[in-house]
């Protein structure tokens, strides 16, 4: 029944939890240093960009594994 969903819930949790942790770390650093939005924004963007890049490469690797040996990828003679 849940075969089509794969591990979408774990990916969603990873995206949200990692971003929240980076933003909280940025808020803590900003509170200690006194540069309120700087580290919060930088670490938040770093988390979102890093997770986006990771998701892209994970997706392309999964697609390559799934399509390995499929008839439309075979070279014609």
Provide key terms for this protein.
single chain; 77 residues; mainly alpha; 2 helices; elongated
Uncertain segments are: none
Number of strands: 0
Q: What's the N-to-C terminus distance?
A: 41 Å
Major pleated sheet: none
Give an overview in words.
The protein is mainly α and 77 residues long. It has a domain of 46 residues. It is elongated and about 65 Å long.
Set down the secondary structure blueprint.
Layout: H1 8-33, H2 38-67
Helix pairs in contact: 1-2
Short description:
The chain has helices at about 10-35, 40-65.
